[in-house]
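Hi R.,

Quick one: here's the TerB family tellurite resistance protein sequence you asked about.
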Amino acid sequence: MFKDLLNKLLQPIPSALDPQDARLALTALLVRIARSDHNYADVEQDRIDRIIAARYGLDMGGAIILREQAEAMEAEAPDTVRFTRAIKEAVAYEDRIAVIEALWQVVLADGERDDSEDAILRLSANLLGVSDVDSAQARQRMERAL
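And here's the predicted structure, written out as tokens:
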């Protein structure tokens, strides 16, 4: 099911993702960060559902389906370096900051900041080309919002 998208992600120079593929890849990145502490909690799944419903104008049923597809893709996806590189090529900088905000929402969803979640978020921000300052400001905005 995800073979074409994964092939795009694995190319030495990733090709641009169509909107559906970019949506799936971004959701899979949210899943990846939620799973990084080996405790993929219901609250994190719910947060992902709400983020993607709002971001993509989906009802909750559509958001759950997209998250479930992203869970399957994330399990097959390449390492975070290639995964985020493809997203970087497909998404404008301002939208990448919104991605970092969404990642922070997932990290903060269970009320605990885990070192593994922080590490993968820092790596993802760097690979997405988002500065440390912009990532820290995104975290602060999300902490205030939650």
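The two ends are 35 Å apart (CA to CA).

Cheers,
M.
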